[in-house]
Amino acid sequence: MIVTLEVNGERRTAEVAGWESLLWVLRERLGLTGAKDACQQGECGSCSVIFDGQLVCACLVMAADAEGAQVTTVEGLADATDLHPVQRAYVDEGAVQCGYCTPGLVVATAHLLTEHPDATPDEVREALAGNLCRCTGYGSVLRAVAAAQGASDPAGADREA
Amino acid sequence: MSEVTVSRPPVRGGVGESVQRPDGIPKVTGRFEFLGDMHAEGMLWGATRRAWVPHARIERIDTTPALALPGVHAVLTQDDVPGHRYQGQALTDQPVLAEERVRYWGEAVAVVAADDPETARRAAEAVVVELEELEPLTDLELARDRGEVFRHIPVRRGDPDAHGEVVVEGTYVTATQDPAALGTEAGLAIPDGQGGVDLWGPTQWTHVDLTQLAACLALDPGQVRVQPCRIGGAFGSREDLSLQTHIAMLALRLDRPVKMVYDRTESFVGHVKRHAGLMHYRHEADRDGHLVRVDAQILLDGGPYQLTSQAVIANSTFFAVGPYRCDNVFVDGYALRTNNPPSGAMRGFGANQPCFAAEAQMDRLADELGLDPIELRLRNAITQGDRLATTGQLIEHPLPTDEVIRSVTAIPLPEPEDDDEPLHLPGGTGLTTPRDRVVRGIGYAVGLKNLEFSEGFDDFAEARVELTADGAVVHTAAIEVGQGMVTVIAQVVRSVLGMSRVEVAFDHTGQIGSAGSTSASRQTQMAGNAALEAATVVRDKALEAGGGDHLDDAGVWRGDTLVTSLAALTADGPIDHHVRYRHRPTDEPDADGQGELHVDFCVAAHRAVVDVDPDLGLVRVVEIAIGQDVGRAINPQQVHGQIEGGIAQGMGHAVMEEVVLDHGVIRNASFTDYLLPTTLDAPTVEAALVEQPSPWGPFGAKGMAELPTMSATPAVVAAIRAATSLPLTRAPVHPEDIVTGPHDAPE
């Protein structure tokens, strides 16, 4: 079947088999390998993408259900010249080690800060509990989220400067 | 290590700075190409037929139905292995594909290559494998009694008739832990058209893979180029081969690139795990709490193939007592052959299991003596000038056991909590636990481990530093698995050269000699020292050629005058130097396990604070504090990252992480069922770094990333014991262990 969807602002079309997931379409049909396939069960969040405004595990979305959807992947967060503030914060805070969970965590964090820019530390922990990281123990991840929250606050940004 | 002069002024991006990873931006933007993201023109997809029984005789394998499927190009079995049919780092005892018998649940029997992964998967299923099931051997004591022993190491030190007045005994069990790196095994093999192959596969040591691959493929080592890989974590699980030989065989047979990616369940059976341990201990002390004698028997479950078990059991045996003085020590360590999943390296490499048991023993001893557990540990803490309790080796270098214990106890305890926020309670948003039922517990543990390879192993690392008009490049075959060695090496070289324009180039096996394994906490010191020595020579050559006294990104300076630009200096070609760095030789153990077996040591102390719901057996790990020996922190941010990540793995093994085995069958081979700590489980971490420079590490640095995992597990379980007054002799602690009361290890 043919599926047409909007990915990172671009209209994309792919011929897909019935068994294919959105994750498979992104990685193998559209060449967007940022989202990672680590558990196939929606447990680890490595394939997190924003799907019609919702944070989803792309491994759990059937390709056929993506017809007409608007999808943002990790490749769509940065603009041509600048990292997204969440990406910048992950780099600055050392929240990247092996980096396999990173695309999913970055997308989940960006979505969280869009929906709840003032999320408390407890709310951040709860919101990111669906993203497994085996390297960092999450301390640097949580510091990166806090830093990204500060960066999106103009007063905070001034202080940084 | 000889003295190193640091150029002035301090260089940007040198030693001591929290330098950012060069792969950080590619990783946050999704552009970093991991193994599973690789693609080659015209590639086929591989898949593996596995036998899902723990032990069986193979009656018949028929590949015809698989080959008959459209889109299938090859189906290979053990009969198709072109060269040596067995692999393994030390003993080559693991068939490339199952031969005559299946010896563990999920063992690979055949591999296929097809046009797409779905066809490959169906073809693998279509391979007919007829099996006669056999009784699996899964009991450790039975394996020992039957002589299924990869290695037995006896330690006999001191007076066999020596005894202490105070005696504590215990039996302890640690379950199998999965490294659970987020990236599953994946690889790509590309034939070179001349009978050779380029191979990208999950590895921590390309040259040890090369040796095995060349033998199995019947190729000259120069025909196989094992490429540096971009890998989603390791923690030891990539030390042994997984899919490399399989994809190389397929690619060479078909003369086409072949890619293979394991799914999570395959990954659980496709990589090695932390050995399960069964340990009997007896500690004897005098009335003042000085250890007089330790007896221990340590059984580790190696699974069916040796892999690294002969070295893992050495760590278990030689670190059986932990970081304490004791003159009379009698240990028997056994690595055993079973039909459980293959075990191998995992962060701590055999030192973790005895740490769990021995630290529980220290708490029992403190209890028996009426001493504070910290005081007992301080009275016995090993330091420079003491001898290692097991091997008798003199500790020649700084070993700040006392300091790490004191530094962790100096960290303020977290405030008691009295709020009803569910996330601050055991059971979390399950809303299971009223605040007034919560009991807080505090526990301590201290860990000791070797750095680098031991027991006489010829352990070396190569590096080449090349200076051009664009700056310096450090060439190495060392593998970056996420731990941050890429910045450490660059920082060391920047500080030596006085230049900030330094990059690390990861070479394949045809370009440079071995850097040794990215394991045993060794690359900071080994690859780091190789790079340091090479950079020192390059700097000296540059200064001599340029006629100056120091170097920076512009060129060679004499005082305040730039005398030769980098471009002029390297106009006739790069200035370079290649080093093969060896650490000092070590002994093989004698018949009593004695000798100077180790190069250097590292120590850490943990304090865990837990809140327990005794009614439901739920545990919230509130905080883990650590005092950590680091020699010198080359990159403080990364040191903290290793500490936090290591602690999460150690606490995971204390309260949730267990490969559940049922007569050799894994019952939880998925991320739904094998629980890993999430943001809601991971504790707050407070770390105190103890910096006593190692005399031979680069700029005094030690490898440090295994210690945070090791003693985290016993510290958390000690804290649960403190909260519950239960003996809790098994890790991980399950809710039923708390709810159903006293629970001891099976006798």
Describe this structure in words.
The complex is a heterodimer of chains A (161) and B (747). Chain A is an alpha+beta fold and 161 residues long. Chain A has two domains: 2-76, Ubiquitin-like (UB roll); 85-156, [2Fe-2S]-binding domain (DNA polymerase, domain 1). Chain A has helices spanning 22-29, 85-92, 102-115, 121-127, 139-151, 154-160, and strands at residues 2-7, 10-15, 48-51, 54-57, 70-72. In chain A, strands 2-1-5-3-4 form a five-stranded mixed beta sheet, with helices on both faces. The longest helix of chain A has 14 residues, at 102-115. Chain A is globular, with a radius of gyration of 16 Å. By secondary structure, chain B is an alpha+beta fold. Chain B has three domains: 24-32 and 460-582, 2-Layer Sandwich (Aldehyde Oxidoreductase, domain 4); 35-135 and 180-270, Alpha-Beta Complex (Aldehyde Oxidoreductase, domain 3), CATH 3.90.1170.50; 277-453 and 590-739, 2-Layer Sandwich (Aldehyde Oxidoreductase, domain 4), CATH 3.30.365. Helix content of chain B is 24%, strand content 26%. In chain B, the strands form eight sheets. Chain B has a seven-stranded mixed beta sheet, with helices on both faces. Chain B has a six-stranded mixed beta sheet with strand order 9-17-16-15-10-31. In chain B, a hairpin with a 4-residue loop joins strand 26 (600-613) and strand 27. Mean pLDDT of chain B is 96; it is low at 1-7 and 743-747. Chains A and B meet through helix 2, helix 3, helix 4 and helix 5 of A and helix 1 and helix 15 of B.
